[in-house]
Design a protein that fits this description.
The complex is a heterotrimer of chains A (259), B (310) and C (323). With 259 residues, chain A is of the alpha/beta class. Chain A contains ten helices and ten strands. In chain A, α6 packs parallel to α7. Chain B has a single domain, classed as MetI-like fold (Orthogonal Bundle), CATH 1.10.3720.10. Chain B is 77% helix and 0% strand. The two termini of chain B are 36 Å apart. In chain B, α1 packs across α11, α3 runs parallel beside α11 and α7 crosses α8. The radius of gyration of chain B is 24 Å and the shape is globular. In chain C, α6 packs across α8, α8 packs across α10 and α9 packs antiparallel against α10. The two termini of chain C are 52 Å apart. Chain C is mostly helical. The chains are: A alpha/beta (259), B mainly alpha (310), C mainly alpha (323). The interface between B and C is large, with 91 and 92 residues.
């Protein structure tokens, strides 16, 4: 189910502005890769190029290669809509559709593709997705209530259920816990551990302890100064990054000396 | 507050007084209309007939007001049906499809439609549009008449309520567009991105995130447009060749008439009880318009509560 | 597509090879793509549709209006002009338009501005809430109803059948006041609270804070709002038609006799329509009335456009940079 991503010499531009420069990395399947770094270092921007979400901003473009199992996501015959279907995303702030019920939220992505999904099939998918997101037991009695009535942590898990309901290969998470309280954060971190058996997971986080707790590999991004492009400084096993990084900048950052 | 003296106190009084004056004016509008409509509403049908204030063959005020209300509603609703989809389309174009620079220019062009005086719309509609659009109506009427049991007539002059409705639609387009585009622009980016990340196409993003979010806004925008179309006088007065019938022949002349155009056409020659009759029809228009506008505002206000809580 | 979905919902499958991935990233439902494209075309078509009447109308008004618009047309009235005589102009209507609109502005701006000041600076409690609601209600008054109101009001004092310029001004004011309140309110609310508090903290009395700080900061926006409100009511026809009637001669006195305005001029000339001309009468122009209506329409549109541009210019040149 899960797939590897290879990035080669990727530059990201907004108009003439070079936002991220020269990133190359390999993201392993069935593992959690964390991106850390100070604000504005381009880690979220980079994450969004992995499912072509950055294209929403006018003037955004990339050069270089992003390959999913050897297939370039930016190839001429590739459809960005299909890319986003296969590389799901969870955002900083939980964003269930406010006008839809919990059940409809889970089915939102599936219904785009398969409008006439049978009720039994839909029920099954709702249950399996919500179970997958550790939310089933909390909401099974109110599937037809609006999703906005849930707590922040529940809403975020609902968004995860919605993302995995379309059966993506990769799951991107853009600071998924930054708007949540510690208990909800813990629940999401547990969930990430369970999900990595079936998905390739990439998570951007501001919280170094979180990166240390959940990830197998960690990539450190940094920026030389305002107006300069962000760069990938170092990527290695999480344990190595936090105990014996190669670069001075990484060591300074993980030990809390700046950022 | 009690420490205010001299100018400060005077200034507060002037401000408060202005507010009260405004309410008094509005109350006066309502009171004068009711008071002046009463003689017509209470007059016996003998009086109405004897003083020759009703059109030929009518014996009661309601025989006049009912078809007028019907004509007003038909014209306004037709305009609404034409204008709303186009306005929503333009609003989406401005908020989601057009490049930033283009969308500002488009907004300005649509606002320009609102700046054109209604009498100019009437002149254009009567002198330029009607002789052209009559071909469309004739063809439509002929085509519809092919259906069994349906007889649709079209006038050769184009001076039908359908033509008036088209011009009304152009006139209310800017209001509906302006309100809708504001709501669409307020759609949280988060929800649009959520839809995109699920693999939605551009249109599916609009269908899943933008339209459900903006639905109540569009409804109230349409109702504001309806309120405007109901009270519009000149465009109808200068285009429509009127009749006082409850008739669904929207392509034919001499069928319907709207309240506002009826008043404007009869008032210059009216005197005595006739003026009261016209004011009574005006009162009916006032009440209908108020109800529609209040409903629209109510929907907007409720929507604010909703998004404030979420 | 349904087969893929079934395969996927059936449970985890083995990681597919590169070709399968390529196929997956390329697959996108053809019908979904088609719907997307159709909607895109429709949205653009909606915009194009709205531009048709705008361009058509402007083109017609400019082309047909230019035929008769001349300095002569702007400087003579319709006194003694009848039938197909190739003469007459809109001077009397311009005089009436300026008088009626000016008086309406003098009535509406103080009431509207002070009501807005009340709402922003003092307003709390039931009166403010009632005002906010009823200003919205007042915005929706049909213009003809405003005309009926003013007519009955003046009939009380001057007897039935009265036609006066001032009555038209009052009718127009009823339509103008809520517009002025709304735009002034919006402008006053843009003034940051810190400015007010800073001045109050210096011991400046409340009314001086409003005059010297709040109004001073928002004067450009208020001027723009008033200009746009004038642009909106200057085209009003129906309420003026039933309160000031129509006239062929110049009348400078709003308290005496009928008064013509440009919009009513357009309407009356259009209503008269074509005139029958004797074949021997070479000076007779059969469609002179319609031509006058178009020329007056062009004049009116030019005035409205100038007012709109002026409004925008005032904001651009004089508005303080608050943000």
């Amino acid at each position: 189910m899960s797939q590897r991503i290879d990035v080669t010499d990727l530059n990201i531009y907004y108009g003439d502005f070079l936002a991220v420069e020269g990133v190359s990395m390999a993201i392993q399947p069935s593992s959690v890769t964390a991106f850390i770094g100070p604000s504005g270092c381009g880690k979220s921007t980079f994450l969004r190029t992995l499912n072509r979400m950055h294209e929403v901003i006018p003037g955004a473009r990339v050069d270089g290669k992003v390959e999913l199992e050897g297939v370039d996501l930016y190839g001429p015959d590739i459809d960005p809509v299909a890319v986003r279907r296969n590389v799901g995303m969870v955002f900083q702030r939980p964003n269930p559709f406010p006008t839809m019920s919990i059940r409809d939220n889970v089915l939102a992505g599936v219904k785009l593709n398969n409008k006439k999904i049978a009720k039994s099939e839909a029920d099954e998918l709702v249950e399996s997705s919500l179970r997958g997101a550790n939310l089933w037991n909390e909401v099974k009695d109110r599937l037809h209530k609006p999703g906005s009535g849930l707590s922040g942590g529940q809403q975020q898990r609902l968004c995860i259920a919605r993302a995995i309901a379309v059966k993506p290969q990769v799951l991107l998470m853009d600071e998924p816990c930054s708007a949540l309280d510690p208990i909800s954060t813990l629940a999401i971190e547990d969930l990430i551990q369970q999900l990595k058996t079936s998905y390739t997971i990439v998570i951007v986080t501001h919280n170094m302890q979180q990166a240390a707790r959940v990830s197998d590999k960690t990539a450190f991004f940094n920026i030389a100064g305002t107006g300069k492009p962000g760069r990938l400084i170092e990527m290695d096993d999480t344990a190595t990054i936090f105990s014996a990084p190669q670069q001075k900048a990484t060591e300074d950052y993980v030990s809390g000396r700046f950022g | 507050m009690t420490a205010e003296r001299g100018f400060s106190r005077g200034f507060r009084w002037i401000s408060t007084g202005s507010g009260i004056l405004l309410l008094a004016i509005l109350a006066a509008v309502a009171i004068f209309l009711v008071q002046q409509a009463l003689p017509a509403l209470t007059a016996s049908s003998e009086d109405l007939v004897a003083q020759n204030v009703l059109p030929q063959g009518m014996t009661s005020l309601w025989q006049l007001i009912l078809p007028l209300v019907f004509g007003t509603l038909v014209a306004a609703l037709l305009a609404l049906v034409i204008a709303t989809p186009i306005a929503v389309g333009i609003a989406l174009y401005i908020s989601h499809y057009a490049p930033k620079r283009v969308s500002a220019a488009v907004g300005y062009l649509v606002d320009l439609l609102a700046a054109i005086p209604s009498v100019v719309y009437g002149l254009w509609g009567g002198a330029t549009l009607a002789p052209v659009i009559r071909h469309v109506w004739t063809w439509l009427a002929e085509t519809l008449s092919l259906l069994p049991g349906l007889e649709v007539r079209a006038t050769a002059t184009g001076r039908s309520i359908a033509t008036a409705a088209v011009v009304l639609a152009v006139m209310i387009l800017p209001i509906i567009t302006a309100v809708s585009r504001e709501v669409f622009k307020q759609t949280p980016r988060l929800h649009e991105e959520a839809a995109l990340a699920l693999g939605a196409t551009e249109w599916e993003v609009i269908k899943t995130a933008v339209l459900p979010f903006g639905r109540s806004g569009v409804v109230s925008a349409a109702m504001l447009g309806l309120g405007r179309a109901l009270g519009e006088t000149m465009a109808v007065l200068m285009i429509l060749s009127p009749g006082i019938l409850v008739s669904f022949q929207i392509f034919d002349a001499g069928q319907q008439q709207t309240i506002a155009a009826f008043i404007a056409s009869q008032f210059p020659e009216a005197a005595g009880l006739r003026v009261n009759v016209l004011i009574a029809t005006g009162l009916a228009l006032f009440v209908i318009t108020m109800l529609i506008n209040m409903a629209a505002r109510w929907i907007v206000a409720r929507r604010k509560d909703f998004s404030g809580a979420a | 597509m349904s087969t893929t979905t079934q395969a996927r919902t059936a449970g985890p499958v083995a990681s597919p090879g590169s070709d399968e991935v390529r196929a997956m990233l390329r697959t996108s439902d053809v019908s979904r793509k088609r719907v997307n494209r159709v909607m895109k075309v429709l949205v653009h078509a909606a915009f194009a549709t709205a531009m048709v009447p705008l361009l058509w109308l402007l083109y017609t008004v400019v082309v047909r209006g230019a035929a008769r618009l001349s300095p002569y047309f702007l400087t003579v009235s319709m006194r003694g002009v009848f039938g197909g005589i190739d003469a007459g102009g809109v001077y009397h209507a311009m005089v009436g338009t300026v008088m009626i609109t000016l008086i309406a502005t003098v009535i509406s701006v103080p009431i509207g501005l002070f009501t807005a000041i009340y709402l922003v600076e003092y307003g709390k409690g039931p009166l403010a809430r009632a005002l906010t609601f009823f200003v919205d209600v007042m915005t929706g008054i049909p213009s003809i109803v405003a005309g009926l109101f003013s007519f009955t009001l003046f009939s009380l004092f001057f007897g039935p059948g009265v036609r006066l310029g001032i009555a038209a001004s009052v009718a127009v004011s009823v339509l103008m006041i809520p517009v002025v309140v709304r735009s002034c309110e919006e402008m006053l609310r843009l003034v940051p609270n810190e400015l007010r508090e800073a001045a109050l903290a210096l011991g400046v009395p409340r009314w001086l804070v409003i005059v010297k700080v709040v109004l001073r900061t928002s004067v450009a926006g208020i001027t723009t709002g008033v200009l746009l409100a004038v642009a909106r009511v200057i085209g009003e026809t129906a309420p003026i038609l039933i309160t000031a009637g129509f006239a062929d001669s110049i009348n400078f006195n709003p308290f005496e006799g009928r008064m013509m305005t440009l919009p009513v001029f357009i309407y009356t000339q259009y209503r008269v329509g074509l005139v029958p001309c004797a074949p021997s009468d070479l000076a007779c122009v059969p469609d002179v009335n319609v031509l006058r209506a178009w020329a007056a329409a062009l004049t009116l549109i030019v005035i409205v456009v100038i007012l709109n541009l002026l409004g925008r210019l005032v904001t651009r040149l004089f508005a303080p940079k608050l943000r």
